[in-house]
Design a protein that fits this description.
By secondary structure, the chain is of the alpha+beta class. The protein is built from four helices and ten strands; from the N terminus they run ββαββββαββββαα. The protein has a two-stranded antiparallel sheet. A two-stranded antiparallel ribbon has the order 3-6. A hairpin with a 4-residue loop joins β8 and β9. It is rod-shaped.
Length: 225
């Protein structure tokens, strides 16, 4: 809708080259708002669906593993084999849907392999006279880099070391002794911080000696809490 005498451009020509002017008013034009598919709409729906399919792909890949293997999520790659939008960019539409077919692949690693790598690394750091308490070993792995064939990990390991104590020999040395004497002996051992002696069944003090047979004595070495 233009009033009479309006000067406007013609086609793609510059207004300095040519211009047009209407002698009479133009009327009858209409305007309305319409939704259309944008470039961002296409990119977003493709990203969102790919993320969803990546999670699904991990589940499917996990079904193909055996033993203690697991998939490295960061290594999963998706190859689009087919995609079908119900509208293309620029189409007038209220909604946009996408059918996407992919091929997925990823790298798998076994927990036993990771444990061995950690053990090989921290083994030389364990001082003489101590051993690793595997039940108290805490490991936290984070993926730093992946490609088609390799994964680079960073591992944070917290370990508790226990002194190497010959429990069979200790049992022999405290057999038949009163708890006080046994405690003195145990306290003389290297790296012992706390001693607890339990005799069952409960006996009068003058009879409450440790068993005379070493095989009836159980010795447990635990980290000091």
């Amino acid at each position: 809708n233009l009033s009479a005498g309006t000067i406007f451009r013609v086609g793609s020509y510059s207004s300095l080259e040519t211009a047009a002017k209407n002698d009479t008013a133009f009327s009858g034009g209409t305007s309305r708002q319409a939704k259309a598919v944008s470039k961002d709409d296409v990119a977003k729906i493709k990203t969102d669906l790919s993320d969803s399919l990546k999670s699904k792909a991990r589940e499917e890949l996990m079904k193909q593993l055996s033993g203690d293997q697991t998939i490295i999520t960061e290594s999963i790659t998706l190859q689009v084999t087919a995609e079908e939008f119900n509208h293309k960019e620029g189409d007038e539409a209220d909604s946009l849907t996408l059918k996407l077919s992919i091929k997925a692949q990823g790298l798998a690693v076994s927990k036993s392999d990771l444990d061995k790598i950690v053990a090989d690394q921290i083994g030389p750091e364990i001082p003489s006279g101590f051993s690793l308490n595997a039940s108290e070993l805490s490991q936290n792995f984070s993926v730093k880099k992946t490609d088609k064939t390799t994964v680079t990990f960073q591992a944070k390991v917290t370990a508790i070391l226990l002194p190497d104590i010959n429990t069979t020999e200790v049992a022999k040395n405290i057999s038949g002794k009163y708890p006080e004497k046994a405690r003195d002996y145990l306290a003389s051992l290297s790296s012992v911080g706390q001693i607890d002696i339990l005799i069952t069944p409960k006996l009068p003090a003058f009879l409450a000696t440790l068993p005379r047979l070493a095989k009836n004595i159980t010795i447990s070495v635990q980290p000091l809490k």
